Amino acid sequence: MNIWICILSLSYIQFVDAKAHCQQQYVSVSLPTSELTKLYEIATWFCYKEGTTNFNNKIVHLTIHGLTYDHTYWNFPCESSTYSYTDYVINKSNGNIVVLNFDRIGIGRSSHPPAYDVTIDLNADVVYQLTEKLHNGQFQDTKFDNIILVGHSLGTLISWTTASSDSGYNRFVNGLISTGWLHKNNPIGGMGIISSMYPVQLDPKLRQQNLPLGYLTTNPSWPRQTLFYNMNDADIGIVQQDEQLKETGTLGELRTCEAANNPLVTLKIPKAIPILLVIGQNDQCFCNVTLACDNSLIIQEREQQNFISSTETYVLQQAGHSINLHLNSHDWYQIASDWTQKYFRIKQEL
Fold first, then answer.
1. CATH code, 302
2. Residues 222-240, mean pLDDT to the nearest whole number
């Protein structure tokens, strides 16, 4: 694959005839930070089948990206027919699934509060306010009743906090698709991620953004292919594009991960909220020789004591951590579509 084709596709993305139509919208959220200003802007992209005018009874996949990613993780601009989760689930459902992508607080086009304020709980508060806006008709003038949180990595941890009854944020959450996170991690892989992070002020891509102190990103000297990929199942051009699109994380998020990963959080996700857990077979953050991730049964056994709700599992064979950006990503996209059909009874349009 020619990496320059992908770079050009970013420059001219507005002219590409995308399978899903996405409308960008900024929404305001009120957050308890150390700043006098309590209102922050969140950049959102509401995506749906081209030509859709009636959004009643549509199922929303509200996606939550992970650390150092932005909304493009779910709608990758390069070779979208292979890598875009957004396009796939919308097309496979014949438009009965719609997708709300957004840049998390502190990421991309969204507001950037002080880094120590941007915690897992603050992220969950944002997700709650987005679900509330979806439910109350602030997107497409439609009150959506079926909202599934689709998280990856840190985004999964945020979704668990949102869905837990302890948080008070789960009022409008109906299901969880949780990828790239398990309760027990591989210490070596986890330390590799932490060790790769450095201040954005030192990064050639991000230092011009004048972000607050405490914002971090991955150091180019630690290639993302060694952190997030199994290169036997990935395209080097996509990995290079990932490096070009990389975003940030905060010290506040890192310092609150451990508390959010406590099984007491997920044990308080109500039984009424079904969960699909998805992991890459070679995700070095959570898998090694002693922490096997070879099949769904193993993952079910590893995680079943951490949930009381109905939980299904799936392992994307060969994939590393960033499962959306592996060559066989469609395999798990289909699982997500089938799971949604199973629990939410998508009515196919004739």
1. 3.40.50.1820
2. 94
Identify whether the C-beta of residue 302 lies closer than 8 Å to the C-beta of residue 342.
Answer: no
Written as one string, the DSSP assignment of 137-175 is: T-BTTB---EEEEEEETHHHHHHHHHHSTTTT--TT--E
The tokens for 66 are 């992970």
| Alpha-carbon span 339 to 334, nearest angstrom | 8
**pLDDT, mean over the chain:** 93
Q: What is the mean pLDDT of residues 197-220?
A: 96
Strand order in the sheet with 249-250: 197-199, 215-218, 249-250
Using one digit for the tens of pLDDT, what is the confidence trace for 315-338? 999 999 999 999 999 999 999 999
Q: Is 86 a member of any domain?
A: yes
Q: What is the pLDDT of residue 8?
A: 46
Number of domains in the chain: 1
- Indicate whether 31 belongs to any domain: no
The answer to whether 185 and 303 are in contact (CB under 8 A) is: no
CA distance 102 to 110: 8
143 contacts 178 by C-beta, under 8 angstroms: no
Distance CA 201, CA 247 (A): 13
Instruction: Give domain status of residue 334, yes or no.
Output: yes
Q: Which residue is associated with the tokens 């990595």? A: 153
Helix (H) or strand (E) holding 129: helix 120-135
pLDDT for residue 93? 95
Burial of 115 (C-beta count, 10 Å sphere; 0-12/13-18/19+): buried
For residue 331, what is the enclosing H or E element?
helix 329-344
Residue 285 lies in a domain: yes
Which residues, in sequence order, are bridge partners of residue 25?
44
Q: 63, 71 in Cβ contact below 8 A? A: yes
296 pLDDT tier (thresholds 50, 70, 90): very high
How high is the pLDDT of residue 19? 77
Predicted structure pTM score: 0.94
Domain that holds residue 302: 20-25+40-344
Q: Which amino acid is at 241?
A: Q
